[in-house]
Design goal:
By secondary structure, the protein is of the alpha+beta class. The protein is about 65% helix and about 10% strand. It has helices spanning about 1-10, 10-40, 40-50, 75-100, 110-125, 130-155, 160-170, 180-210, 225-245, 250-335, 340-360, 370-385, 405-425, 465-475, and strands at about 55-60, 65, 365, 390-395, 400-405, 430-440, 440-450, 480-485, 490-499.
Length: about 500
């Protein structure tokens, strides 16, 4: 209940809004500070130079005014360095926002801190009365952040080394209290910190080289990324060398800024690549979910169909039992008790038809050999009673097939309709019935020597002599029933159904 009220409370939404507003305000503030620290120092330098000049211009209020062309004559190199440092700080803000709620990417915070610290150092050292002191104060912290980033980047941690670097960052500023020239002290500190930074970069490249040959493709570090990293760290190493051997030329600021910008863009590219991969995984997950849902739907349809078949089968058996027990008993009583031969014959035929229907309802499959025996006995018996010579041709070899109950019933009724037509309408004296089973099909050919179908029914075979019923039953079994006839040469009925 409390959690529900907490979710419904407007306080979390307000807090999130305040956090977003604070994040945007922080980003704007840091960007403004970076622009001031990176781009404005040349202007401030010109202003300071004018303020300490022997004869500055005075306005009516007594304030110092720089010469009118002071801003226009700023050195282009200062503007280049200022623009690069502004880009460095902007990318530091971007990286900070990207890793704001990503615990797995928190190590990039060391890079963002290094970039911001470098902007402060590059913007403060040339324009402060104590450049050596600022370098000694800020430099160790930059080395600490750089080493931590390089180690975390290859998933390594060393608490002892981190403590040593932290101790160094705290103790090196105390050397400013020693009676030594600050310039010489700053030079020595630059040598020491530069050596540490170059060693850390070499260690980092060595581990990346080892990651190129990991056993699985997913774990290997991409070769293209390795080349880019080596180039960027090479720029950083050149920046360290120029700081040691060519101080004051501006090359260090340019090379270091380019290296930091490249590293930041590489991290942004990795974020973009990870986002694309995540979107692809989400899409694949949705596809797998759709496939799973489709599979569940198919399984549900199969279960429902099986359940419906069970219910239908149970109902068929109940109806068959009722027909056999009730109607069958009554028809059998009529057959044995009726004094009229006509009524007794009709009752016997109805009883046979009912038994055939019951067999179809029970759903029990029938062996094809048994079905052939039943059909032969019935066809030969009925034709013989009509004084028609019947010739039955069974398959040459034994057939090991079964007939579904419904197919058996439908085939039996087609044969009965064909025999009835021969007896009533053909005037035939001889009939040949041939059966065969091959290539997955069962065929029956019934041919008589009767007078054929009259000319007035030509083209309208489906409308007379039960032909439509026979073809419809064959179609229900996914088979076909063809009729060939002509006046004077009899009729041929071909029934073909799949086994």
């Amino acid at each position: 209940m409390r959690s529900t009220l907490r979710d419904l409370s407007p306080l979390p939404a307000c807090r999130r809004a305040w956090r977003k507003a604070g994040t945007l305000a922080t980003a704007a503030s840091l960007t403004l500070i970076g622009m001031v620290a990176a781009g404005v120092p040349p202007v401030l330098a010109q202003t300071v130079a004018v303020s300490v000049s022997p004869s500055p211009a005075q306005d009516p209020a007594g304030l110092l005014v720089p010469p009118p062309l002071a801003l226009a004559h700023a050195h282009p190199l200062d503007w280049l360095i200022g623009g690069l440092n502004a880009m460095v700080l902007t990318l530091a803000v971007v990286l900070t926002l990207l890793i704001w709620q990503r615990r797995a990417q928190r190590h990039i915070g060391w890079l963002a801190g290094l970039m911001a610290g470098w902007v402060v150092l590059a913007g403060a050292v040339p324009h402060t009365p104590w450049p050596a002191a600022v370098a000694v104060l800020v430099g160790p912290w930059l080395v600490l952040m750089a080493v931590q980033y390089l180690m975390r980047r290859v998933r390594r941690q060393d608490r002892r080394l981190r403590r040593l670097l932290l101790f160094q960052a705290l103790m090196l500023p105390l050397t400013l209290l020693l009676p030594l020239p600050h310039a010489a002290l700053a030079q020595a500190v630059t040598w020491v910190l530069g050596a540490e930074l170059v060693a850390a970069m070499g260690w980092h490249v060595w581990h990346l080289w080892q990651d190129l040959f990991l056993p699985t493709l997913e774990e290997r570090y991409p070769r293209s990324d390795f080349i880019v990293t080596c180039v960027l760290l090479g720029l950083a190493a050149c920046a360290v060398l120029t700081a040691v051997f060519l101080p004051g030329t501006g090359a260090t600021s340019i090379l270091a800024a380019l290296s930091l910008i490249g590293l930041a863009l590489q991290r942004v590219r990795e974020f973009s690549r990870a986002l694309t991969q995540a979107e692809l995984q989400v899409l694949q997950g949705e596809l797998r979910m759709q496939e799973r849902i489709a599979e569940l739907e198919r399984h549900f349809d199969q279960v429902a169909e099986a359940k419906l078949e069970q219910v239908t089968e149970r109902e068929r058996k109940r109806i068959a039992a009722d027909l056999h027990d009730d109607l069958g008993a009554k028809l059998l009583t009529i057959v044995h008790t009726s004094e009229s031969d006509r009524i007794s014959t009709l009752a016997r035929e109805a009883l046979e038809e009912m038994r055939l229907s019951v067999r179809g309802l029970t759903g029990k499959p029938v062996q094809l050999l048994d079905a052939l025996g039943d059909w032969r006995a019935e066809v030969v018996s009925r034709l013989a009673q009509a004084n028609i010579l019947a010739e039955w041709k069974s398959p040459a070899e034994d057939i090991d097939h079964t007939f579904p109950a419904r197919a058996y019933v439908q085939t039996t009724r087609i044969l009965r309709e064909a025999v009835s037509n021969i007896i009533k309408h053909s005037g035939a004296t001889h009939c040949v019935v041939g059966c065969s089973a091959q290539d997955g099909y069962f065929s029956v050919v019934i041919q008589d020597n009767g007078q054929g179908i009259p000319l007035e029914l030509e083209g309208r075979l489906d409308k007379g002599h039960g032909m439509a019923s026979m073809k419809s039953r064959a179609k229900q079994m996914h088979g076909q029933c063809l009729v060939e006839s002509g006046p004077g040469w009899g009729t041929v009925i071909r029934l073909t159904i799949p086994l």
